Amino acid sequence: MEAAVGAVSSLLGKVLTKLSEDLVAAYVDSLELGHNSQQIKTKLLQTQGLLQPAEGRDVSNVITLKALLEELSKKADEAEDLLDELHYFKIQDQLDGTNYAAPDLGDGLRGHARHGRHAVRHTIGNCISCFCCSRTQDDGSAPATVANSAHQHATNSATASADDGGHVDKLHFNRVAMSSKIKSVIDDMHSLCDPVSDLLSKIPSSSTAVTLKRPHIGSTIIQDTLHGRRDIFEKIVNDITSGTHHGQTISVLPIVGPGGIGKTTFTQHLYNDSRTEEHFTVMVWVCVSTDFDVLKLTQQIHNCIPATESETAIETTNLDRLQKSIAQRLKSKRFLVVLDDIWKCNSDDEWKTLLDPFTKGEAKGSMILVTTRFPKIAGMMKTVDPVELQGLESNDFFTFFEACIFGEHKPRDYEDELDGIAREIASKLKGSPLAAKTVGQLLKKNLSQEHWNEVLHNREWRNQKSDNDIIPSLKISYDYLPFYMKKCFSYCALFPEDYRFSNSEINRFCIAIGIIDSSYPRDKNYMEGLVENGFLMKGVYEKSPFDEYYVMHDLMHELSRSVSAQECLNISDLDFRAEAIPQSIRHISITIENRYDEKFREEMGKLKGRIDTVNLRTLMVFREYEERTTEILKDTFKETNGLRVLFTAVESLESLPESFSKLIHLQYLQIRSPYETEMALPSALSRFYHLKFLDLSRWYGSSNLPKDISRLVNLRDLLAKKELHSNVPEVGKMKYLHELKEFHVKKESVGFDLRELGELRELGGTLSIHNLENVATKEEASGAKLMLKMDLKELTLVWDGELPSDIDAHILDALQPHSNLTTLGIINHGGTTYPSWLCPEILVKNLETLHLHGVSWGALPPFGQLPYLRELSLKSISGVVQIGPDYGGVTGKCLMQLKNVVFHDLSELVEWVVEPNCHMFPSLESIDCSIDVCHLTRNFLSKVFSSFPTLAELEIRFLSENSEDDEERVIQFPSSSSLQTLSFWMSNGLVLLPAEDGGGIQDITSLQSLKIMYCNNLFSRWPMGKAGGAPMTNPFPASLRKLHIEGESGMRSMALLSNLTSLTHLRLIGCENLMVDGFNPLMTVNLKELEVRNNLFQTKSVAADLLSEVARTKSMHAGSLQLRKLEVDSISAVFVAPICSHLSATLHELQFHDDKRAKGFTEEQEHALQLLTSLQTLGFNHCKVLQSLPEGLHHLSSLKELEVSSCPELPWLPEQGFPTSLQVLRLWFGSAEQKQQAEKFKKTYPSLRVDCAF
C-alpha cells in the first residue's frame, strides 16, 4: 500500500510539472474547463501534500482509499501522456515555426470558425486521434489497465516508413481529440482528488512510521559449528589477543554485511572463543537494533559491568553519572563490548557520546565489536578497517546446506538421487547462510526428486513469508529506506544479475521514467545511498581504476525482483510462465539466453494478451538474438508506443520494433548494432523531441546521422564515439547537451562554425575542437563562448592545417576557457607566442593536466604557477633547451601535486636544471621520456633518480646514439629507488652498467614490471656469457612479477631469468638467439600468462624448447601450473599429454602465432587437446601451412571463442562442427572457401556470432 501511495504522489508530481509549463498551461486555460490551470494545480498540490506524508504510514486497512488511489493513478498516468503529447507538438511548432498546438484564444466568429474546422477534421478522421495515422485503433481495444495512453488516441502519420533512412514525415496535431481527452481526464482527476484527500486527512498521524521490530539476540551460541571463514576468524582472534589491536587503548572493529550473511553468528563465536575469554577481564554483549538511544544503551552496558568494591549502588538516568561510573569500573581493565545489529546512528556526535567512557581506560587492547548491515554506519564507527562478510565459499556452504536439510542423518541414497539437484540449488543461493536455512527447510519437507526439482525451477524460497526466511529478512532493510531510494532499488530488478551499473546510467534511467527530477545536479550520486545501506557494492575496473561501478549481490537482486514484482518483469528464463505475471506490469527487460525455444513463443503470446503492452513504460533487451527469437519479441511488442525507455539490438532496420517511429514519449534510447556493418541509423530518431539520453556507445554502423538530428532539442547525453559527435550539424539547437566530445569547424558545411558551441549553455565534460585553421577571425572564435562554460572539464584545441601565425595567435586568445577547466591540450598551434590567458599569469589555475604538442612558442608558459597540476605532457616542441626556473617557472617549491611527466621529441632539450639538494616534485610517480637525436648530458637520468625519490614509473623511448658524442649514456639506479614499473623502447643510446660496476637493477626490490623492446646496447656491458654458459649474476630483481623482452638478439641464456620465481606474466618475443640452458622450472609455478614466440621471419622456436624442458621436469606434477593464457609459435610443442595435463585445470586462452611447420594434427595431439577442459578461447594466427583444424574441436565443452586469422592453406573448418558452447567465431584474412563457410555458419548456427574480414 505504501508503494501505491508513493506511486500516485510521484505521478501527480509529473502532471504538476507539465501543467507548470507556460504553453501547456495556456492551452489548458483555453479549454473552458470551468477551472483554470492554476486551480487544477492547487487541487493536485493539496492532494499530493497529503500523499507525501502518507508514504511512510500503514494505511493498508483503508480499502476504499486503495481503490480510489488505483483509479487516480490511472487518470494521472493518462494525463501525463496527454500533456506529454501536447508538449511534443509544442516543440514541433517551435521547430517549424507553426501554431497548430497554440492555445485557441480567438473569440467571436474567428474563434468559432477555427473550432469548426477542427471539428470537421475530427469527424472525417473518425475520432481516431490527436495526430493523424495510417491505422485506427478504438479506445477500448487494448487491455484495460491504464486508459490507453496518448498513443491509443495518437498514432503515426499516414505515409512512408520513417525508418528507411530517408525523409521523415511529421506527425499532425488533432486539436479536437486532444481537447476532448484533456477535458475528460482533468475532470476525472478533479473529482477524485476530494475523496482521496478526505480519506487521507482522517488517517491518524500516530500511524506514521511502520514500526520495525527486530529480534533481540544474545551472545549464546545457537549454531554450534562455524562453517567456513576460518582464515578471517583466526586473523581477528590473533589481532585482538596479540596482534594489531593488542597495543591500542581501544579499537572499534565493525563486522558488516547484508542480512542473513551470518554476522551475529560469526561474532558469537568470536565472543565465546576461549582465547577471547582469557584475554578480556570484562565482556559485554548488547543488542542495539533500531533503537540507538545513547542513555538507554549506556544503562544496559553499565548494568553488565561489575561494580568496584568501593562503589555504592547506583540507580540513575543521569547520563553523566552513568558514564563516569563506567569509566571508573573499566579504568584498569581490558574489556570487550559487542554492539550487535546496529540499524541507525543519527550523527557522529551521538556515537562519540556513547563511546566516550570507553576511551578513559588505562589498559591496552580493549575492543568494541559492531555488527551492522550498513556500510555507512561501519564507516562512521570504525577505528580500523571493517570486516566485510561475503557469502561462504562453495564447499563450506554446501556442507552447511546439507546440515540444514538433513541434520546429522543424511540418507544413504542421497548422493545417487538428490546430490546433483542440491548442488544446483546451492549455486543459486550465493553462499548466504540464511538462504541455506530457508531453502533447507523447504527441501526437508519432502526428500523426493520431484519436490526438489520444483523448488529449483520455481525458486520457491522467494515466496517464503516468515521473518526468518531470506527475502523477508532482507526486505526489513528495504522497508527502512526513504521512498525515492526504494524506487531506485526496485527498478534495478530490470537489469541482469551481476550487471555493473555506473552512477550516470542509473540516473539516466530514473530520470527517464520519472523517479528523479530531470533538473538533478549532474554530479549527484544516488547510488551511494544504496551502497551506504548495503544494497549495492562498489568496485573499480581493473584496467581503468578511476572508473567506478556498482554491482548488486545476487540475493539483493532477488529482493529487488520481489519488491518490484507488480511493476517490473525481468524475463531471464526461456521457460517462464505468463499466467504468473501480474497484469499491472509496466516495465519489462529481456535477459534470456540466445537460443530458440518454441515454448518461449507460446508464453510470450500469452503475455501479450495478459498485460497492457501498449502502455509499457520500459522495454530493455540486453542481448542480441537469432532471427526467430527477434520475431517473437517484435510481435509481442508491436503495438507498444508509450515507452519512456528502450534498449534494443538490431541486425537491420527491419528488426526495430514496429511502433518505433511512434515512440514520441521516448526519453532514453539505446541502440546496438553488429560489428562490420554499414547500416544507417533510423531517420525517425530526429523526431523524438522528448529524448534526453541517446546511447550509441555500441553502435558500429555508419557514422552518418539523420540530417535533422539537431531537432532533438531536449537531448542531454549523446553516448557515442567521437565521429558521431563531430557529425551533428547545427548542434547549437541542442541547448541542453551536457557533452560534445568532438567538434570540427567546417567552412564548406552549414551548421559547423564555432557559434554553434556558443549556444550550448550546459556543455560540460570533454570537448575537442578540430580544424581551427578554418576560423578566420577573433570574433568568430569568441562565438564559442568557452569562458562561459563553467562545467567544461577537459578542452583540446587542435589545428589540423596552417594559417598565418598572427591569425593563430589572435584566435587562441579568443578561445579562453572558464577557470574551472581541469585538463587543457593545445596541439599544432601555429602562433609564435602563447595566449594571454597562459602568460604572464595563468588564468586557468585549476588545471590538473596540461598537454602542449607541436607548438613553437620559443618559451614555455609558467606552468610552475599551477598548484593542482598532476600531469604534464610536452611533445614535439622546438626551442626548449632546458626546463627550470627560466623555462616553465619550475622550482623546487612548485608543482607539489605533479605525478606524471611525458617528454616526447624535445629535440633541443639539453638539461633539467635542478636546485642543489632539492627533491623536486615530491609526488612524482611516472616519467615517459621519448627524445630523438638527443643532446642530454650524461648525468640527466641520474638526476632523475636523485631529484625524484617517489618515482614509481619510468619509460624511456627513442633515445638514439649520438653521432657527435661518443660518450655512452649510462643509466644507474640507486638501490633506494622506489621504481615499480620500468620500460625501455628502441633506445640504442642507453647502457645499463653491470652489478660489479655499481649498476644493474637487481637491487631495486620495489620493481614489479619491466619491459625492454629493441634496445640493442642496453646490456652491451653486461657479462652475458657464451651460448650454453650462465652469467655470473642475474640482472633482474627477484621481485619482478611482469617481464616483457622483445627484439633483443643479445639475450642468449634463460639462466639470466633463473631467479624470477615470482613472475606472473612473461613475454619473450623475437629473441632469436635465446637458449633454454639454465632454465629454472620454478619460474613457471606462479605464471598466469606466458607468451614465447619468434617474429614472423624467424624459423627457430624458443617456445618448443622451453615447453620440452617443462614436459621433462620430474619435480612438477600434473595440474601444477596456474597458466590462464598461453601464446606460442609451436602447435606440436603444446599438444602433448604432459603439457596439456599441466594446463588442464586453469588454461582459459590458447593462441598460436606464426607456426611454420604444423599442417595438421596427429591422433596423439587430438587426444592431448581433449585434456584442456577449461579452455575458453582458441586461436590460430599466421599459421601459413596449416591445412586442418583439430577434428575433436566439437568435444571441447567449455570453448566459447575460436579465431582463425591469416591461415591461407586452411580450406575447411572441422567437419564435425563446433561445440554447443561456442559463442563467437572470428575469421580474419582467410581463403575464399573460408568466406563461403562463414556465410553458411551464420545460417546454420544462428546463435553463433560470426565476425569476418576477408
UniProtKB/TrEMBL annotation:
What are the recorded GO MF terms, alphabetically?
ADP binding; ATP binding
Q: Where is the NB-ARC domain?
A: 241-406
Where would I find the Disease resistance N-terminal domain in this sequence?
Answer: 7-94
Instruction: Cite a single GO BP annotation.
Output: response to other organism
UniProt xrefs under Pfam families:
LRR_R13L1-DRL21, NB-ARC, Rx_N
The R13L1/DRL21-like LRR repeat region domain extends over 754-876
- Keywords assigned by UniProt? ATP-binding, Leucine-rich repeat, Nucleotide-binding, Plant defense, Repeat
User: InterPro entries, per this entry?
Assistant: Apaf_helical, LRR_dom_sf, LRR_R13L1-DRL21, NB-ARC, P-loop_NTPase, Rx_N, WH-like_DNA-bd_sf
Instruction: Name the family.
Output: Belongs to the disease resistance NB-LRR family.
Output this protein's name. Answer: NB-ARC domain-containing protein
The source organism is Triticum turgidum subsp. durum
